[in-house]
């Protein structure tokens, strides 16, 4: 699970090591990456909304 | 080693030279807090870009030179370097966020037009600006005053060629003034660089902006949105004055407006109307219908010896008051007051060989407008 989150975060930043990428592609289910990706993106959007509301106060 | 420092010296000298030249090329610092904030942001971001450019291109040119083929350089073959990749992703993020924080603060301030002490409605019209001091019963149009002879080259250009008006917008310093901006016809843009205001005026919409001017002076600008044939001939002039002077000016304008309102009811002599009408004609009508009423057919019909105009005073009044839909002729019912309308119609019915002898009284025009 933690490994999936780390890979998704690395994807958001756009930097991933080759070794980790090969691990991801040899084990784990694609659905887990998709769901984690959507959840983390939503969290990121919520964080931005929160920051914007905080700044607009 | 020493020669490398000499390079740096040369670069910094060139940079300071650029700064010295900036007076003619750069944006103005302006005369409001917002305009100097914008200038500060512009310069900060400019220098960040300069540093990035020097570092990136410096590294590139240094590598190209130092590891050149003729010196036997061999290319390194490697696929990835995670920590360097993280670094060159993180640094731009930090730079961008670092620029966004002060920029957003300035933007927020620019959009906060609350607590204004004076409201001025700015209306764009082809091709002039109308200013209305809301709640003060003071309104006027501001027309370019550069003579047409200067534009056509028959006369030498003046100091403020195309940037001068008959009546400037007068504003007090040290007071927050809110602008409510709209347009009667097409999209215009009210732009005064020294005030850091460039706002589109859009028919059917009201945009807001505000200024708080720190220094008295005359600030000039232009329409910044292509709005038709005379787009270049509708300048903005703002006259910023001390608060006391502003109050006096406003009181004078109010009194003049009251006098004008009283003038509607009295009977005017033909000579008075013709004299008044000539000045209205030259500032409002002559840009299209030309100084001698000869027009510029087919877009702008001639008024001199125009059979329909000469024979039908009601038709003439209707066109001036209500405009011609689908043509360039705007409706002047709200731009000009009844005295000005009556004067300009009387003038054009008795000028350039149109010797009708007709006199149109301001009271008649007021009745037509009220209908």
UniProtKB/TrEMBL annotation, chain A:
Pfam families: DUF2970. The keyword Transmembrane applies. Keywords: Membrane, Transmembrane, Transmembrane helix. The keyword Transmembrane applies. The chain crosses the membrane at residues 33-56. This is DUF2970 domain-containing protein.
TrEMBL record, chain B:
Residues 19-114 form the Cytochrome oxidase subunit II transmembrane region profile domain. It comes from the Bacteria. It is found in: Cell membrane; Membrane. It is an enzyme of class 7 (translocase). Its main location: membrane. The keyword Nucleus does not apply. InterPro entries: CcO_II, CcO_II-like_C, Copper_CuA, Cupredoxin, Cyt_c-like_dom, Cyt_c-like_dom_sf, Cyt_c_oxidase_su2, Cyt_c_oxidase_su2_TM_dom. Its EC number is 7.1.1.9. Residues 115-252 form the Cytochrome oxidase subunit II copper A binding domain. Binds a copper A center. Residues 272-352 form the Cytochrome c domain. Belongs to the cytochrome c oxidase subunit 2 family. Subunits I and II form the functional core of the enzyme complex. Electrons originating in cytochrome c are transferred via heme a and Cu(A) to the binuclear center formed by heme a3 and Cu(B). This is Cytochrome c oxidase subunit 2. It comes from Vreelandella boliviensis LC1.
């Amino acid at each position: 699970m933690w490994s999936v989150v780390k890979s998704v975060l690395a994807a958001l930043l756009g930097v991933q090591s080759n070794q980790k990428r090969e691990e991801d592609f040899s084990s784990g289910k694609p659905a887990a990456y998709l769901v984690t990706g959507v959840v983390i993106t939503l969290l990121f959007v919520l964080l931005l909304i929160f920051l914007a509301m905080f700044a607009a106060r | 080693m020493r020669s490398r420092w000499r390079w740096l010296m040369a670069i910094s000298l060139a940079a300071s030279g650029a700064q010295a030249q900036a007076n003619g090329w750069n944006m103005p610092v302006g005369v409001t807090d917002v305009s100097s904030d914008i200038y500060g942001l512009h310069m900060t971001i400019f220098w960040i870009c300069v540093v990035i450019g020097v570092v990136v291109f410096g590294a590139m040119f240094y590598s190209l030179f130092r590891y050149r083929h003729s010196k036997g350089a061999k290319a390194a073959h490697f696929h990835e370097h995670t920590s360097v990749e993280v670094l060159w992703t993180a640094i731009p993020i930090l730079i961008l966020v670092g620029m966004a924080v002060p920029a957003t603060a300035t933007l927020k301030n620019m959009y906060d037009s609350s607590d204004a002490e004076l409201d001025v409605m700015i209306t764009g019209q082809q091709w002039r600006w109308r200013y209305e001091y809301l709640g003060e019963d003071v309104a006027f149009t501001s027309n370019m005053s550069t003579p047409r002879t200067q534009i056509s080259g028959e006369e030498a250009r003046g100091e403020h060629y195309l940037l001068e008006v008959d009546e400037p917008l007068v504003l007090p310093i040290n007071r927050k003034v809110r602008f409510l901006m709209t347009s009667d016809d097409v999209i215009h843009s009210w732009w005064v660089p020294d005030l850091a205001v460039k706002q589109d005026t859009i028919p059917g919409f009201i945009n807001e902006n505000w200024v708080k001017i720190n220094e008295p002076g005359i600030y000039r600008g232009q329409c910044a949105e292509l709005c038709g044939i005379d787009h270049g001939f509708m300048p903005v002039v703002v006259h910023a004055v001390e608060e006391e002077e502003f109050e006096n000016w406003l009181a004078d304008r109010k009194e003049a407006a009251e006098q004008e309102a009283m003038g509607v009811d009295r009977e005017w002599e033909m000579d008075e109307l013709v004299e008044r009408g000539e000045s209205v004609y030259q500032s409002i009508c002559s840009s299209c219908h030309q100084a001698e009423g000869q027009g510029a057919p087919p877009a702008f019909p001639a008024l001199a010896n125009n059979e329909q105009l000469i024979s039908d005073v009601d038709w003439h009044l209707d066109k001036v008051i209500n405009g011609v839909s689908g043509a360039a002729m705007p409706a002047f019912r709200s731009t000009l007051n009844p005295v000005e309308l009556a004067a300009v119609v009387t003038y054009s019915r008795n000028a350039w060989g149109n010797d009708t002898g007709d006199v149109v009284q301001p009271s008649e025009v007021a009745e037509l407008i009220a209908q």
